[in-house]
Amino acid sequence: MTTLFLHATIITVNTAREVIHDGYLLVRGQHIAAIGKCPPPSSITSSDSEPEPETINCTGQIMIPGLINTHAHLVQSLLRGLAEDLPLHNWLCDAIWPLESVYEGDDGYHAARLTITEMLRTGTTTFLDPMVTYRAGWEGVCRAVGEMGIRGCLGKLVKFPETNRQLSITDPRDRDLINMSVATLIHHHQQYHGQHDGRLHVWAAAGTPRGAPASLYRDLGDACASHGISITMHCAEAPRDREIFHDVYGCSAMQFIRDTKLCPQPLPPPPPPPSTSTTRTTTQSGSSQTHHLVLAHMVNLDLEIDIPLLRSTKTAIAHNPSSNLKLASGIAPIPALLDTTTKIPEVSSSPPITISLGTDGAPCSNHYDMIREMHLASILHKGANHDASLIPAETALEMATINGARALGLETEIGSLEVGKKADLVLVDPYGRGGVGAAPWDWEDIGGGGVTAVTTVVHGCTGRDVGVVMVDGVVVVRDGEMVKGGREGEGEVVRQARMAVRGIRGRCNSGAGRVGGVLKCGWKDV
Ligand SMILES: [Zn+2]
């Protein structure tokens, strides 16, 4: 299958950060075969052995790499709006954990289908889920990823007892601990990693350290290093999480990560080749480290201690501005983490910290729209720091694309539009869906001082302006609708989700509990 996109404004996010005006992009099979300025040379498509490519005219549209959401709970879409106006620890203990503990049957499958529909339709082509719970049903979530054509890293929850009376933490999901062990993780990794043409990746999702022995985390770190399983974890989210690191473990967040070896470890040097050749190789994948680590949130840190450790341990961050604001966790110190002009000598030679972007789950951000998240990431730190120069739109777009790919260890495959990379791409159509919010953006006024394509996408559009989405060379969204099933199929996904959440609420509230949406401030349903 060959597809030729013509007359697009292409934001490549390549090394030179080129924006191509009136550009073309050719997809052959799963990969980008050619990219440049129109007209494309006839040689790239004229082949007797190849059928004519499908041509998509993109006049007036902006092409970006597929967006990468590095912190998104797939199965929480069913809980959207059910835990409003609560701080993190109450939100977890009083609402989210009780609700998640009564998922059954196909609930997780229906939730995943709903989330993936929203992700694809708003331009996300790859995600990292930091917590597929036992009750959500692993098999069903994998099936949803396979059926719907998205690229996904599923974090299999590895959980140690979180119920902790001293800290007033009660987690009803702890009854399933046996199914959330390191051994179960390794088994799932062996069975599922690489399924669906390599679109499905299996990660470890470590439960947040809230009292469980550090030695259990060390066991997890060792197992992941020896099996090459990447890890993600919620870390230093609320102010209380920082206190727990200090009071329970006697260290900062990143000291905990270093000491438990959750961070990537260098691979031992390869054995000398049998011949006299001096060519050195690393692993089959070309990586020189055992695995990758993505820590979500990272709001409440000990910066003097944690910044050097973040850099020296090659730990990536998933920044979640919507979630952090809504749950009153605070504002992550992203400008300080991005600052490469540090005066700390042992840090200045380390590579900068990779900051990617995530929406988190629907109950704490109410959406999975990465364009909205980019907009917020860009404006939040300006206001918080009284510095309008911080996080320009270009930086926000890097977080949502190439940095996300780097965080996942997939930067040679996705994250930018370059020849040889997987064809994961999005066409944003600022005027096509009836909107005028991006006007008067003018794709024909090039370099004349008009609004740029990057500003237009990040600040003038939302995911609802996405028209076409391609993953792995396959068009999965066209005219703003899912190709498989169309509008009718989407309606069925929503209907199933409505049914599923009624069951979940019913089971959760069958005792004395009362969890769910409620009008506040004296407002009432009539
Ligand atoms: Zn989360």
TrEMBL record:
Keywords: Hydrolase. Gene3D superfamilies: Metal-dependent hydrolases (3.20.20.140), Urease, subunit C, domain 1 (2.30.40.10). Residues 263-289 are annotated as: Disordered. Residues 265-275 have a biased composition (Pro residues). Residues 276-289 have a biased composition (Low complexity). Residues 62-476 form the Amidohydrolase-related domain. This is Amidohydrolase-related domain-containing protein.
